[in-house]
Every structure is written in C-alpha cells, then in structure tokens.
Amino acid sequence: MYSLDLSECQLTQEEVGLVWRLCPRLKRVDIGVRRGTRDSLSTTALAQLLSHLPSLLSLNLQSCSLLDDATLLPLSSSSPYLTSLTLSGCSLVSDPSLLAIASRLSYLQALGLAYTQVSM
C-alpha cells in the first residue's frame, strides 16, 4: 500500500503503530481533520508514525490542533523526501517549524501554512 487516507478516523496510539508496522512503504498519508471531526491524534502517536515512514512524499496534517513545533521538527529529518506538506489550520505551528522545513526538506514543492502562527 502506498497511499492511506485516515482523515475521518479517530486514531489511538496503538492504531497508529499498526499503520507504520503494516504499511512501511507509504508514500502519501492524509491525517487531516475535517469539519465535524474531533482531532484525537496525540503528538506522541504522530511523532511515532512520522519517524517510521522515511519514504513519505505527501503528508496532510490539516487542522491537527495538537501538532506543535516540537512534534513537527523531527519530521524535517525523518521524512527528507516530502514534496507536499499541508499544515493549514495547525494553530500551534510557528516560525521554528518553517525554518526547519525550509532548511531540511529540499524536495518540498507545496507547503500549506494558512491559519498557523508562522509570521515570516
């Protein structure tokens, strides 16, 4: 499996662990939160998922309200081949994340930052 849409799912940390163990070659993951859906993904579970998917090309984390700079910074090292990253609506994401993304994700072609704390 190369693409997985979990945007309407309420994931536990154990379920996130199953994703990376059963699908280690994922290229595209959508964990974005849609209107009417509660964000249940913990920062620990998200960090665990991202650290085990080094081949990831596209990641949608739209409106993941718990996502912050501390969780996002390791992404820039663990998923170096990302070409598309959506962080729109992640209200805790700010300038340190943007700096890490800009300096480490050299293949990035699309970056969504609407409704974040990025000021640059």
TrEMBL record:
<dbReference type="InterPro" id="IPR001611">
    <property type="entry name" value="Leu-rich_rpt"/>
</dbReference>
<protein>
    <submittedName>
        <fullName>F-box/LRR-repeat protein 2</fullName>
    </submittedName>
</protein>
<dbReference type="InterPro" id="IPR032675">
    <property type="entry name" value="LRR_dom_sf"/>
</dbReference>
<dbReference type="InterPro" id="IPR006553">
    <property type="entry name" value="Leu-rich_rpt_Cys-con_subtyp"/>
</dbReference>
<dbReference type="Pfam" id="PF13516">
    <property type="entry name" value="LRR_6"/>
</dbReference>
